[in-house]
Amino acid sequence: MTDFTASPSAEQLGDEYFQNPLAFYTRMRTDGPVKPVILPGGGRFWLVTRYAEVRAALADPRLYKDWAGKLTGPDWVPDEVMGYLSVHLLNADPPDHTRLRKLVTRAFTARRVADLRPRVEAITDSLIEALAARAASGADEVDLIEAFAFPLPVTVICELLGVPVRDRDRFKEWSHAVVADEEGSDFRATGAEMFYYFTDLVAAKRARPADDLVSALIEASDSGDALNERELIAMLFLLLVAGHETTTNLIASGMLALLTNPVQVARLREDPSLLPGAVEELLRFANPLNHATERFTMEPVEIGGVTIPAREWVLCVTSSANHDPQRFSSPDTLDVGRDAGGHVAFGHGIHYCLGAPLARLEGEVAFGALLSRFPSLSLAADPASLRWRRSSLIHGLETLPVRLA
User: Fold this and answer.
1) How confident is the model at residue 122 (pLDDT cuts 50, 70, 90)?
2) Other C-beta atoms within 10 Å of 229: how many?
3) Model confidence over 255-311: pLDDT tens digits?
4) Of 23, 357, 87, 64, whose CA–CA distance to 232 is shortest?
5) DSSP 385
6) Which one, of 346, 345, 290, 351, lies nearest residue 45 by Cα?
7) Which ranges in 271-343 belong to alpha helices (H)?
8) Number of folded domains in the chain?
9) What would the pLDDT profile of 50-66 be if each residue is shown by its tens digit?
10) Are 235 and 100 contacting, i.e. CB atoms less than 8 angstroms apart?
11) What does the DSSP 8-state code read for residue 394?
12) Burial annotation 193-226 (CB, 10 A radius, 16+ → b, else e)
């Protein structure tokens, strides 16, 4: 067993980490299952990189999420804005996590999501028709993220929540800011804009309720069903960002993976029944997140033979786990016929992504529509020239230029 309580030296990851994190994770897996690093955005974290250890750590009750309740001192006073945005599901431990999750789980059950399929298909068809019109006019080169991968999931989550779709460009700007590891970025300023936006939205919905999730959460709050105003604002913040960010990246990164593997595209076109399984494989292969959100220790915790000291931050690197050859044969090869069951793209344990059924549905509809409508769809840039967003958490392209015909 390796004891690192004497504050080990941590590898400093440079900016090149953002462009090819899997290369770093591959090397780290060979060194051992757990390693301390300094991320480009700053801060020391212990990366858990092997599948067995990642899956176990994701369900380990000794790794906590509620930093505001457990890591702050008695004199700590929460910021007016960030104190609201920090009390969401991903920063909660039981019993608060159990209570908060119960209030929104019913909106994302498999049955409720299945009922959304006609609307998801209608939104997809509208976006596909707009792309086809552009191609017919001769403007067949587009940024697939701007024209399709972003507007599809953000429209769906906006309609589900009851948030004005016309504000979607603001949501994109805010979302990019809160997940970025950019020097000089003002997370608090962005958070403040979102805080005041949702405060106004809640007031408007309280005055005029509608058949949407925001109104339902307000009703739960007002009826004393264990949701206070801080938790309500934070819940909306989380659902809006998480509800489109990961699916946007699944569609974009998944299409990049397919377009650089024409044999796999041909298999899907020849046998559309492979599509549901292909979505699982694309989740595994092109993980929309590099890692799960932060956890921390309150006491020394042993993972994979390595002892992580108390009050240290831990990242379960799900994308690395999904490329671990000890779990997946030839993990760096895309195979749309693979049984990718057991991947941890949606996490594991009590924080398993509650939006997983919706993301799967959107991915299946999106990939199927693009491949069937645009048989000559191709990349319009050298894959090596594509740039990835500067975010440790999100594995997402800045743009995805494609030719439709």
Assistant:
1) very high
2) 12
3) 999 999 999 999 999 999 999 999 999 999 999 999 999 999 999 999 999 999 999
4) 87
5) G
6) 290
7) 275-285, 318-321
8) 1
9) 999 999 999 999 999 99
10) yes
11) B
12) ebbebbbebbeebeeeeeebbbbbbbebbeeeee
Strands 378-379 and 44-48: what pairing?
unpaired
Maximal C-alpha separation, the chain: 65
Mean pLDDT of 57-78: 87
Question: Which domain covers residue 100, as residue numbers?
Answer: 2-403
| First-last CA distance in the chain | 57
CATH number of the domain that 291 lies in?
1.10.630.10
Torsions phi, psi for 165 (to 5 deg): -65, -25
Nearby residues of 254 by Cβ (< 8 Å), 6 or more positions away: 279, 282, 286, 363, 367
State both tokens at 32: 């051992």
C-alpha to C-alpha distance for 371 and 254, rounded to whole angstroms: 12
β-strands 34-38, 11-12 pairing: parallel
* Residue 188 C-beta-side C-alpha neighbours within 13 Å: 7
